[in-house]
Specification:
- By secondary structure, the protein is of the alpha/beta class.
- It has a single domain, classed as 3-Layer(aba) Sandwich (Rossmann fold), CATH 3.40.50.
- Helix content is 31%, strand content 25%.
- Strand 8 and strand 9 form a beta hairpin.
- The longest helix has 22 residues.
């Protein structure tokens, strides 16, 4: 049984500061990486206990160099670096039975959320076929195009609320409870490791109960930026339509390619 795991950093145990922990090179970044490894390896261990036979991880944060390779569970493989467009035969495809998301967060503009954003800090809102969503929703929709369900997610409390609104069923591992943009009630890594492991194990054991999050083709992504300059930069990319001063539009029949081609050129 194949499981695909996407890992981010803002929703990892104990991470509450973008500048001091989530930014590579910052004072708390190395500690944040260690906390990431605790959460990630717990998900891998749980998945294996639940019956997974093959696990591939995609390092999504910043440059894709956050995972400490010599600490990664030996039964897993990882896509590192920043390959926005990963060939299906090497990345996510229809041969996987489920996807997990470790270390996720709420979308930009979410009230009371911890470190909320949608991919880049200059992005204010993202609509897929008219539905407002963040990284959790869009990545679940991309997986859905391959028939792969999102089966487990670890996140802060506001990120989890977002996931619950979109998905009929998902195993939930809350690692911290948001108070403000850079404040949360955090659980120790020894506790969250067990929470994540148990939720991942249950998710794989009950994998037949999950359904892919499917959005029907054709696809339209409307992306609003905070600043006019960001929309102007994005509008210079091929096949991007500018709708107004701060909003652009992407349209196509292949959602994974539509989004990944755009993000590979908008950096």
């Amino acid at each position: 049984m194949k499981i695909y795991i996407m890992v981010d950093l803002e929703g990892i145990t104990g991470v509450v500061s973008s500048e001091r922990q989530a930014r590579p090179g910052s004072d708390g970044y190395e500690e944040a990486r260690s906390l990431l490894m605790s959460d990630l390896n717990a998900a891998i261990e749980g998945a294996l206990e639940g019956g997974a036979t093959e696990i591939v991880v995609y390092d999504m944060h910043y440059y894709g160099l956050n995972v400490i390779l010599n600490e990664l569970h030996p039964r897993a493989k990882i896509i590192m670096g920043n390959p926005h467009v990963v060939p299906p035969e090497l990345g996510l495809n229809g041969s996987y039975q489920g996807m997990m998301m470790v270390g996720y967060h709420a979308m930009a503009e979410t009230k009371g959320a911890l470190l909320p954003h949608t991919y880049a800090l200059d992005m204010k809102s993202l609509y897929l076929n008219g539905v407002l969503m963040g990284e959790i929703g869009l990545e679940a929709a991309i997986a859905g195009t391959f028939g792969v369900p999102l089966i487990m997610i670890s996140a802060d409390s506001k990120g989890m609320e977002e996931a619950e609104k979109l998905l009929k069923r998902v195993e939930k591992a809350v690692v911290k409870y948001a108070i403000s943009k850079e404040g949360a009630v955090c659980l120790p890594a020894s506790t969250t490791k067990e929470i994540i492991r148990k939720r991942a194990k249950i998710a794989v054991e009950k994998i037949d109960r999950f359904t892919p999050y499917k959005v029907l083709s054709p696809y339209e992504i409307k992306l609003e930026f905070y600043e006019r300059g960001s929309a102007e930069k994005a509008s210079k990319i091929s096949r991007v339509n500018r709708l107004d001063d701060t909003t652009i539009q992407l349209k196509g029949d292949d959602l994974p390619l539509l989004w990944k081609r755009f993000t590979s050129k908008y950096q």
